[in-house]
Recover the amino acids of this structure.
């Protein structure tokens, strides 16, 4: 039973980080212009944050994701006229080895997020050189 409890605690913590970042980012945008968990029934998607007035989707990614899923999300939101901005949580991204999805996103509109000990969300970009996915 102890293993199960630890697993569920970790899963809930991950979901908590995701929601925490969503709320902090939404608070940075003009009041009333962005909605968390906004549904797009036409494409069967729920955006992490939809900035309706600017036609921007903010995808907060805290867990690993495949290149195929990134491409699908970008294409789906593009079909309804939205651009996707990716925020990659640095617990799983911006590490020594990059996934195919991360290599792709580094050439697009994407940034990293970090939650510090003061519970502040820091969004950052960086200049880098990538060789052989490293």
């Amino acid at each position: 039973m102890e293993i199960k409890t630890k697993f569920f605690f970790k899963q809930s913590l991950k979901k908590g980080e995701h929601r925490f970042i969503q709320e902090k980012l939404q608070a940075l945008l003009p009041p009333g212009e962005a909605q968390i968990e906004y549904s797009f029934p036409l494409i069967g998607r729920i955006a992490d944050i939809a900035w309706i007035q600017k036609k921007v989707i903010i995808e907060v990614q805290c867990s690993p994701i495949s290149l195929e899923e990134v491409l699908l999300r970008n294409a789906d939101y593009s079909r309804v006229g939205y651009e996707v901005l990716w925020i990659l949580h640095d617990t799983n991204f911006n590490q020594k080895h990059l996934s195919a999805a991360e290599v792709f996103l580094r050439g697009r509109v994407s940034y990293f997020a970090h939650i510090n000990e003061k519970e502040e969300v820091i969004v950052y970009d960086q200049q880098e050189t990538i060789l052989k996915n490293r």
In short: DSSP finds three helices and six strands in the chain.
